[in-house]
């Protein structure tokens, strides 16, 4: 396991404990050095180099995977988290979908959704708790001009980097925020470069348990951030059959529609060029936002697959998270956890799903954009 000593620096500001710390103040990135993992230029951007990449065995753990887990475990030993996520109870909900539910009684106040009528409501793990202490920032990730990837113990944050920050209220093991930043500022919109960098993080971690999530529909959204953690098994949506919607381009982009699943979902895969797929996904998401179609992303399979979940145009505060779209439900109440049924969760997901007509329109949009990038 790779170990890395935290660089003490008292210049990291603590500011009211509010999210405005990352939204409006970026001085903590200036004139301060952090551990840095740099992608090599011999990367998965080039055609055909992505095709042979597959999840590696634990004894052959990648450097980036070892760095993330060792630093996350170090913060666990130091008591940086509000509870021990490994003590949370998880079960498969009876039924063909094999939905997963988690009971996390460590979450009592401040991060829990309030029940509305008789509807089962889970607490929201995507409420961004910005960095209050310097040890919450594990390290940064960026590109470099060197041929091979490398770990630098201390470096200033370059343009177009990813900040890796622990989620102090984790939902699963290794739960972190992946926060794109550029020129010492955070991104305020989803762009191809940030999608590419985050997907490359998943690819270089190269662990089949690692998944990345993005919600476009967060209330009061001001900055772009992703979340990631490790699941011991694939999420329920990943077991569903698919129907091919688009394939055949020379860039190796494949689009499939997930069949027999309660929320409309498209799957994007590539075996050739991650950078091209990231650019196509970003343009698709931009069009969806223009049309007020709410969506979520899940990056899996070491960056080779991106799932696009499509929701109705609700108020952002009523939208569901990518976690839930994937079939992973969170509960704070033992009674709700014990009583949950597959039918209830099917109805819940279906109530948020995009309708059939608009789904067909989105599929046509995706095929049109993919053909432009895949030629």
Q: Can you offer a commentary on this structure?
A:
This protein has helices spanning 20-24, 63-77, 192-205, 274-290, 322-325, 334-339, 342-352, 356-373, and strands at residues 33-39, 89-92, 100-103, 137-143, 150-156, 161-166, 173-182, 185-186, 210-215, 226-230, 242-246, 253-258, 265-270, 294-300, 305-311, 328-331. It has 375 residues and is α+β, with helices and mostly antiparallel strands. A hairpin with a 7-residue loop joins strand 2 (89-92) and strand 3. Helix 3 (192-205) crosses helix 4 and helix 4 packs antiparallel against helix 8 (356-373). The protein is globular and about 50 Å long. This is GDP-L-galactose phosphorylase 1. Residues 64-229 form the GDPGP1-like N-terminal domain.
Please describe the structure with a list of short key phrases separated by commas or semicolons:
GDP-L-galactose phosphorylase 1; 13-stranded mixed β-sheet; globular; alpha+beta; disordered N terminus; single chain; 375 residues
């Amino acid at each position: 396991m790779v170990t890395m000593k935290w660089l003490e620096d008292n210049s990291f500001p603590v500011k009211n404990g509010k999210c405005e710390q990352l939204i409006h103040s970026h001085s903590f990135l200036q004139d301060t050095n952090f551990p840095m993992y740099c992608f090599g230029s011999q990367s998965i951007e080039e055609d055909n180099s992505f095709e042979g990449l597959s999840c590696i065995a634990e004894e052959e753990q990648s450097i980036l995977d070892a760095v993330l887990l060792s630093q996350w475990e170090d913060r666990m030993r130091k008591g940086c988290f509000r509870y021990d996520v490994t003590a949370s109870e998880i079960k498969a909900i009876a039924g063909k979908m094999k939905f997963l539910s988690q009971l996390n009684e460590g979450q009592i106040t401040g991060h829990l959704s309030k029940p509305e009528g008789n509807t089962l409501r889970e607490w929201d793990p995507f409420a961004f708790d910005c960095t209050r202490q310097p040890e919450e920032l594990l390290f940064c990730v960026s590109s470099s001009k060197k041929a091979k990837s490398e770990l630098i113990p201390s470096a200033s944050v370059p343009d177009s980097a990813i900040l890796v920050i622990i989620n102090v209220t984790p939902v699963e093991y290794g739960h972190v925020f992946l926060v794109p930043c550029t020129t010492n500022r955070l991104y305020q919109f989803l762009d191809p470069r940030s999608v590419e960098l985050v997907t490359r993080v998943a690819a270089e971690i190269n662990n089949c348990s690692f998944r990345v999530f993005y919600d476009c529909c967060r209330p009061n959204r001001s900055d772009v951030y992703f979340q990631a953690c490790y699941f011991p098994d694939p999420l329920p949506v990943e077991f569903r059959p698919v129907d091919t919607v688009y394939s055949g381009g020379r860039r190796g982009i494949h689009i499939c529609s997930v069949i027999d699943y309660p929320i409309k979902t498209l799957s994007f895969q590539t075996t050739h060029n991650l950078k091209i797929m990231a650019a196509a996904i970003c343009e698709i998401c931009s069009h969806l936002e223009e049309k007020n179609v709410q969506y979520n992303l899940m990056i899996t399979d070491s960056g080779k697959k991106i799932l696009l979940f499509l929701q109705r145009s609700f108020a952002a505060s009523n939208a569901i998270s990518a976690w839930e779209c994937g079939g992973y439900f969170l509960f704070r109440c033992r009674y709700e956890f014990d009583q949950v049924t597959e039918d209830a969760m099917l109805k819940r997901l279906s109530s948020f799903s995009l309708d059939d007509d608009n789904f067909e329109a989105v599929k046509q949009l995706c095929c049109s954009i993919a053909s432009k990038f895949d030629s």
